[in-house]
Design a protein that fits this description.
With 115 residues, the protein is mainly α. The chain contains four helices and two strands, in the order αββααα. The relative contact order is 0.19. It holds the Pfam family DUF983.
């Protein structure tokens, strides 16, 4: 299940892709999510506003990444504070498309119920 989640596969059949385009932070393209699974026809957005909670998951992912970056640069590498700040901001910007994709997938898997 965790491998399927990281690969962005459908929570129902674990074969279809949730996102038709993965997106890239470097190219300023956000991931494009399909409405339904192309293999099992599972509807990804259960109700309007379903992915509102995924924002909180994305926030938690971003905080974990930024804290890890801070700890590595400050405690281990011992670089000046301004470079630490720039590194943390850079990591946050570069991981935004990945966090968007992963947070929606995690949110979907949290509320998936096998019928």
């Amino acid at each position: 299940m965790i491998i399927s989640m990281f690969k962005g596969k459908c929570p129902h059949c674990k074969k279809g892709d949730i996102f038709s385009a993965k997106g890239s932070s470097l190219l300023f393209k956000m991931p494009v999510m399909g409405k339904r699974c192309k293999i099992c026809n599972y509807k990804f957005e259960v109700e309007p506003g379903f992915f509102f909670g995924a924002m909180f998951v994305s926030y938690a992912l971003a905080c974990a990444e930024m804290i890890a970056c801070f700890v590595i640069t400050w405690a281990i590498l011992k670089i000046p504070v301004i470079y630490i700040f720039l590194c943390v901001v850079g990591i946050a910007l570069l991981s935004s498309a990945f966090n968007f994709r992963l947070s929606r997938t995690i949110w979907m898997y949290l509320f998936y119920k096998k019928a």
